[in-house]
Amino acid sequence: MASDNSTKIVLGESELPAQWYNIQADLPRPLPPVIHPGTGQPIGPADLAPLFPIELIKQEVSAERWIDIPEPVLDIYRLWRPTPLVRARRLEAQLQTPARIYYKYEGVSPVGSHKPNTAVAQAYYNKAEGIKRLATETGAGQWGSALSMACRFFDLECVVYMVKVSYHQKPYRRALMETYGATVHASPTTLTNAGRRILEGDPNSPGSLGIAISEAVEVAAMNADTHYSLGSVLNHVLMHQTVVGLEAKKQMEIAGDYPDVVIACCGGGSNLGGISYPFLADKLTGQRPGLRVVAVEPAACPTLTKGKYLYDFGDTGQMTPLVKMYTLGHTFIPAGIHAGGLRYHGDSPSVSLLHDEGIIEAVAYHQNPVFAAALEFAGAEGIVPAPESAHAIKAAIDEAICCRESGERRVILFNLSGHGYFDMTAYDAYLAGKLQDYELPGEEIEKALAGLPAVG
Ligand SMILES: *Cc1c(COP(=O)(O)O)cnc(C)c1O
């Protein structure tokens, strides 16, 4: 047991989880099938084989509750895992709240976020299948950095389509990817049909994750030695991220606490699924009926709070299968907010189903209050959070203020999914008073959703 005044709860390497948790075993109903846009029928493994290794395709549809983590993946996890769980005592004091606030810190990974938890696994399975190169997209550059590192570890080539607005906002993220040996392009490019089509319509397109995905998928589909790799959304990605929540569960136990609410920012849902699913298992199996899980998103890209639960393409170029998810429409191009990792039109199918069932909640915040929360957190705990993670901090602070007003001693756990030391341009803009808040007009959502394909 940790003494009552401990701050960091640290596990030994031997306590690293040996298996990932697959929430598909415990969902209240099965995930809707993924649909082939041409035939209108559910897709099978053969449809996905040009893009993913068979082991990941199996994981994508598996209903096994536990899946073993391969030893070579664990060996790399040990470079930074288990990550610390921190009781934010100084933030509690600053907020004068009776709540107990804990955060799981994923910024200690070599690239500064939770993303390597799946990047390493994906690179491993692709290498094992004899693939030579991985193509991917990246928004803020976090995913691209993680996959570049993982590819380097497993001796794979890596080509990254980076959303153009981020490419210019975050030159050091690009340099980091190149340091690991990756090739990085500002998307949309003239290198793919998907990119050229976008540039014909709008030569000044700032890009979007949906466009960059189309480019990377096209490159993978056209080259037999190349596969595609996605940093969020897919079932296997969220499953790989459950090492975060599995560790946090052990650490909370050591602290002698159990969360009343688990909070994470939500772009595609991978850090949210990662931290919350091992706890949600207790809710889904009836042991913790009162547990709350909160997804936090930007008001400029309010997928869960303002989107619709419909079948949509995962990309702008309509190359991916159709997935039932909360979506703002695949043609949606979000404003150039600084939380680049949260600018995706869709969401993970399992997060979407859980939200549709009312099992998890969602809130949206504007970026100025989010940065204010980031500064409040940095002032108390020292770490400068990634702008994405700062969304979770904002929600955690609001919960803690609620407790101050009601006198409740709630236990709040949030995921600090990454640090913000490559995001100082964003902090600079905030400090100079230059950040704008973008409300997404309802008509724009209606317009983007009107273009959705009809399924079923
Ligand atoms: C990519 C990223 C996110 C958003 O992606 P999710 O799949 O929703 O987790 C959040 N935080 C950080 C630090 C990221 O790099």
How would you summarize what this structure contains?
The protein is 41% helix and 16% strand. By secondary structure, the protein is of the alpha/beta class. A 7-stranded mixed sheet has the order 1-4-5-15-10-11-14, with helices on both faces. Strands 8-7-6-9 form a 4-stranded parallel sheet, sandwiched between helices. A two-stranded antiparallel sheet has the order 2-3.
How would you characterize this protein structure?
The chain is an alpha/beta fold. The protein folds into 2 domains: 8-16 and 80-112 and 242-449, Rossmann fold, CATH 3.40.50; 19-67 and 115-235, Rossmann fold (3-Layer(aba) Sandwich), CATH 3.40.50. It has helices spanning 45-48, 54-61, 71-77, 89-95, 116-128, 142-153, 164-169, 171-179, 193-201, 209-222, 235-240, 242-255, 270-284, 303-306, 349-356, 367-381, 387-406, 424-431, 442-450; strands at 8-9, 19-21, 66-68, 85-87, 100-105, 133-138, 157-163, 183-187, 226-228, 261-265, 292-298, 308-313, 322-327, 361-365, 411-416. The chain has a 7-stranded mixed sheet, with helices on both faces. The protein is globular, with a radius of gyration of 20 Å. The mean pLDDT is 95. Bound molecules: pyridoxal-5'-phosphate (PLP).
